[in-house]
Fold this protein.
Amino acid sequence: MTKEERKLIVILGSTAVGKSLAAVMVAEALGGEIISADSRQIYQGMDIATAKPEPEILARVPHHLIDIVRPDQIFSAGQYREIAQQIILRLYQQGKIPVIVGGTGLYIRALLRGLWPGPKAHWDLRNQLVEEERTFGPGYLHQRLAELDPEAALRIHPHDEVKTVRALEVALLTGVPLTRHHEKHRKGTSSSANPPTVESAGPEQDEHIVIGLRRDREDLYQRINHRVDEMVRLGLVGEVEHLLSLGYHADLSSMRGLGYRQVIGYLRGFYSIQEAVSLIKRDTRRYAKRQMTWFRKEPHIQWIDLKPEDQAHQVAEKVLTLIHAAVPDGQ
């Protein structure tokens, strides 16, 4: 595959917008393979609450970067970038087109434009911050972050201790809010950023075809509510019970994700299953809003506005129309 033929297709959007099946159809039409960009679907054994594609969908087209780490393992955006680049290079060598699909904005940004590396982990400071959270109670660090970096506090969930600690760490070590660093990197003005391309593994920036799917809020929220109800029907509670029985404790970053922490609250008797389901729906809606806030700040996204009646094959056709329009004849 020549350099001119190297195209990197990205299909992004919020949770429940309708990416997975449509992306499979796009990959089938292009003779490509899918690389997931979902920071929750990386975990083995966490299938229902992460809305992993069903086995029959996974079987239609090869999928990469799903089920790659245990729930108690740490996996960074930098690791994602490195592995994804290797997969992209291999697919190019095989004459196949990579189709990146997901809603984790940081993964997609890392792959397309590199990462702002930031200061190295300062473990003494991190341990001090964690100890402060234990001493002053849940929410203390997030409130402190709101004072130092209000934008980051709005973007990071109050229960996400890992991201809260990192944002505080950067602000305290550099004297500049993390969001300011990211803004400079997004505009290409950060001298310490990684090169903003997929380097030897991928195409130049003008060869990225980035397509975003979005829906009206009411339509999306209905889809989210339906998805959560379906998760419960498929055995979400049993999945969480099984993970806990394997020793994956509730304080793990993976177990604090959507669906898992709410069911754990139910299992601990904090509220009823009906209340847990309502919380999952509410928190998923909030998560979708944060995803769209992130994507609206990203450049070069071609948006497709979907209608409630649009089926997966119709979504795929709209995506393929944009792709073909972006690729001149003969390439």
